[in-house]
Every structure is written in C-alpha cells, then in structure tokens.
Amino acid sequence: MKLRYEEVSLHLKHTFRLHGGSKDRVKVLIAYLEHEGLIGLGEADPSKYYGETPESVKKVWDKIDFSNHQDPFLYETIYNDLKTQFPDDHAALAGIDIAMLDWMAKYRHLPLYQFLGLHKEAIPVTSFTIGHAPKQELIKKVKEAEPFHILKIKLGTDFDQDIIESVRQLTDKPIRVDANEGWTREEALEKIQWLSDKNVQFVEQPLKKEDIEGNAWLKERVSLPLFADESARTVEDVFKIKDAFDGVVIKLVKAGGIQNAVEMTRLAHKYKLKTLLSCFLETSIAISAAAHISPLFDYADLDGHLLVSDDPFEGLTLENGKVMVSDKPGLGIERRNDR
After folding, report:
1. Separation CA 119–CA 296 (nearest Å)
2. Range of 217's domain?
3. Which of 45, 228, 236, 322 could make a disulfide contact with 280, Cβ separation 3.0–4.6 Å?
4. pTM for the full model?
C-alpha cells in the first residue's frame, strides 16, 4: 500500500460563528491510499480544540510504514497498530481508516453501506447548522435552509433568546440547540427551561466538557434531553458520561474513524443513550463516510460539505431532508471536473 496526500483549503459560504470563535475557511487533508491499482479516499479535518493541526496530521502520515501491512483486508490489525503508535492523533487515524474502508468496498464492487451490511433507506434526516449571526444574516441562513426539515442553532451568547425568537418568527421546524460549552449551570437551567416549549429536540453540550457533575445536576432539573459532544471523544468517555447525559454526539474525526465511532454508538445504546452522528466543516469524502454508517445512529447532523463553497468532491445528494449516498463502489465520491 502507498499513501500520498494533499492539503485543501475550504472556504465557507458564510462566516461560521459559535461560542469560542469564528472562521471563514478551514484546511483539511485528503488521503489517497493506493494498492493494486485502486485508490481509497480518506479525509482528516484536524481541530485545534483537540490539539491537532494540518501539520500534526502530515507528521503522522509521513511516519506511517505500510511495509508490514500489504493486505488492506487486515483492516482491524492495521488500524489497531496505528492506534498504538498514534493514540492521540484522531484526525490522522480517521483519514486512514476511511481510506482503507473505501478501498476495501471498491475492491468488492460494493457501496460502503452494503459492504458493512447496512441499508441506506435507514439513513436519518439531517439537520442544517446555523451559527451566530446578525439578524439579517440569520434570516438569510434560515431561508437557505428551506430544503432541510430540522435546524441546528448555535447558542452560547448573551442574546440566545433573540436568536431563537428570530428563528421562530420565520419557521416552526424542529430545532436542535448547541451551546458549545457556553453556559454556566444556572444559566443553562434558565435557558433550557425557556427553550422547553420552543419545539427543541435536544441540547448539545450546555456546560464545560469537564463539568460532568454539573451536567448530571442539570439533567435532573430539565425536561429536554442533553447530549454530550466535547465531553465524549472516546469510547471510555461514553462510560464516564452515561449517567449525566441523555445522548452522545459522535464525529468520525473526533472519534478516530469509523471503527471507533461504531464502537461508541453501540456502547451508548447499551447504556440507553441516544446517538447523533455529526461532523466538522468537511468535504464530501468525510461526510459520505459518515452517511454510509449513519443507519446505526438515532440522529444525523451531516451538513459540513454544504456549508463550504468549494468542495472539490461530489457524489452526495440531498433527498427529502437526508444526505444520501450513491450506489457506486466505496464511498461513491469523485473529484469534480472543475476542481
């Protein structure tokens, strides 16, 4: 197996604002894993929040030696070996994990969901994310989200109530709220109680990721389900937060790839927690990988590729509020002719 990669800059359609910062573009790494004339595609979307950068991903990928692993179908052995060598480099691991699975499914002439024994009819409806914005920009974003059945609204500001009231003046669609650790305990209690009659499905990460005890306190006092995002990066974290939350937000890059993400959702379901398969700002490669396994999850938030203006890849469609994969082998993703 041979690995090569490229760095890609993605520019956002709108400035993406959330509690803790804003961005107009992101850098991702695309992996090309070649073996026997086939190429498996993977993607790493490193997050500074988790201590990863494009440079850290490159360093890991430059160190990977596949000389002792020339059979991609030894997938689990190869992946576990890489986890041992690079335990904290989840983005880098995710990119290789996705590329290996894309290669294997292509070799078997099967779309990835079939290769994994799943049915794409069970893909959940996705939400569409709207970050912090001035009122006129917020109105524009809500109108752009017309094809979607569910909205995800970023909160964690001093004007959270104004944001929700502005959205509710435009639509009565179900909302998922993401505070991104932006509230104190008392503030979260007050705001979630206020949100309880606003057709909100659940609230993501209301408190700081370390405040598991605080979230347990909050869970006892509110009626809306609470989902752990920043508090749950690993399989071990699912066990730690199981009594403090009602659900878990799982992302391929955050988890370290498909294998870990599947393990996390199975463990979460064992503890009667709901699971949301989410994403970062990504190309169609990473979103497709997530969409292929999304039938294993209760909810989906797979809109990252739709928030950028220059995704160099294609192969996904939006059908009745769902991000749908193709029936082509592997991920079903190809480079656009104009990129």
Report:
1. 10
2. 115-335
3. 45
4. 0.95
